[in-house]
Specification:
The chain is built from 5 helices and 8 strands. It is of the alpha+beta class. Strand 5 (90-97), helix 3 (101-110) and strand 6 (116-120) form a beta-alpha-beta unit.
Amino acid sequence: MIKISRFIFIFLFFISLTSRCRAADKVAAIGALEAAEFKLGDLQGNTVSLSSYKGNSAVVLIFWTTWCPYCRVALNSLKRDVASLKDMGVELLAINVGESKLKVSNFASSHSLNFKVLLDEDTYVAYSYELLGVPTYFVINKAGRIVFSGNRFAKEGLKELLAK
C-alpha cells in the first residue's frame, strides 16, 4: 500500500510540474512578458540591439551552439525559412551561446548561414532569458513582448502568434 501511494504521489508531482510549465507557456503565448533587452556583436563586428527592432519588426531568436546536433538541424531548417520570415516582417537572430567568435565564424561559413549570427560569449543574454538548453526559440512581437518560447519552432502558427 505504501509503495502504491508513493507512486501516486510521484506521478501527481510530475503532472503538477508539467501543468506549471504549460501555464508558463500560456503566459508567454499571450504576450505578457517583456523581452529582455540585449546588445550583442555579430560576426562582422557590428552591435545589434533588440530594441532597434521594437515597433519595426517582429523577431525570432534562436539560442544555439555549434556542438549541438539538434541546433544543426534547426539552423538548416531556418536557412530555408529566412526569406519567408522576412516577407512576413520577421527578423531572425541566431544567438550562439558561450563559444568564441572564431569557432562560430568558422561554423557559420562552413554551414552557409544566411541570417544574423550574434555572439553571447559570456552567456549573459542566455542567462537573462532563463535558458535551460539549446536550441531554444523566442518569438517577440513588434511591441517587444514574448509571444512564444520553446525548443521547437512552428513557422505555420507564426502569423497567429504575431497578431497577439
